[in-house]
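2024-03-11 09:14:02 DEBUG pipeline.ingest accepted 1 chain
2024-03-11 09:14:02 DEBUG pipeline.ingest length=447
2024-03-11 09:14:03 DEBUG pipeline.predict start
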Amino acid sequence: MEPSYSSTAIRTELTMWNQKPHHAHHVFSFCHGVGCAYMRILLLLALTVFVFPSTALAVTSDVNIAQTYEGYTLITPSTGGNGADGKNEIYLVDMDGNIVHSWKLTTSETQFSELMPTGTLLAILGGASRPESRTRGQAEARLVEIDWDGNITWEYQNTNLHHDFAMLANGNIIGLVREPLRDELRSRISDDSLPSSVWVDRLIEIDHNTKEIVWEWSEQDELDLSRYPYHGSGEIFHTNAVEYIPAGNAFNGKESLFISSREQNMIMIIDKASGDIVWEFSNNVLESQHDATLLDNGHVLVFNNRPTKKTSQVLEIDPKTNKVLWTYEASGFFAEKISGAQRLKNGNTLITEGVTGQIFEVTPAKEIVWEYQVGGDEKKDHSVFRSYRYGPDEINWPNSFLPNPELLFDEPYPYSWKQSLFLIVGSAMALASIIGGIVLIRRRMSK
């Protein structure tokens, strides 16, 4: 099918339906008696069959809800796309696009967030994605944990935190920090036009209890910088993603870290114990990519931005052969920067077209089965660095959080609460008509 990125048409249809008068007494006022009772029943059944399914999902178009991976989608707007109570909110939406929970923040400088299995939110607040983007008086970057009620329960400050983090199995957190290139290493860069300040990145493991750095890995210490040219941006690597790969993984079984370098158009896997690069990939395929992850099958998923080609891709790569096994691309699908892709448990892929805030789910056959527009407007600047879908059994949701009914059934529940109420009332009217008809027949027979 031709991918569609607009949900305006169906929202307009719903608006028109809701604005039309639907008065049952006008419909039924032309007749009375037994025959009309049956007509009422048939009309109510027709409304149930034909009206309800066509208005079940207000935020999607061309939807096949049975093929989606049902859950809640976490959205961290960078610009626009405010939550239920206005600006500076991170929020969850259900499969109907309803905001079902939000975290109100005191700063507008939110870079990124994820939900931990406990239901606690982990987020980067403040800071800047590029060194030159920092402004005087800008809030210092903080890595924070926020409980369900919006209280900050843990905090780590570092001016140079940026982009991403990774949660480890032992409770510690990997942070991504920027640092200046040391003067003695400048000669390794084969470029005479280096500015006075050039930046590289360092991975740090933060002990959750003590907040001390217990492990670190620096690009300028571990990599041969002569292999990585400078492209004039003030940074050699611009590392924009880090993912923790636990021991026992399908790639090599070793505890590792996955990083993505935007400036080098390259993704790398680092053996955490030795610090060695055990796999890297570019092959003139990647350009300014984001969000590289290792899948359960040992393959790699990455959002390939491709700003010079003005068309983006999502790629699945076999790291053992370096072959691209699956590609999603479509007319009009493009994000010059940020963005991400998440492989869901049912095999679908949740894609974040970051610049416009368009989030959509595709099947392995590349059919769009769900989509959501951050901010509600089409293709405007409602940027989102990355989004995540969480199934009802993936997070220890608080008891106070009442899940959407459609997440409680093996088959998707197709109706909203308003439609359910209409169905109940309609059924009651039909039953009353049947009883009334029977009473009327018995009275006439007894005469």
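2024-03-11 09:14:41 DEBUG pipeline.report The chain is about 15% helix and 30% strand.
2024-03-11 09:14:41 DEBUG pipeline.predict end
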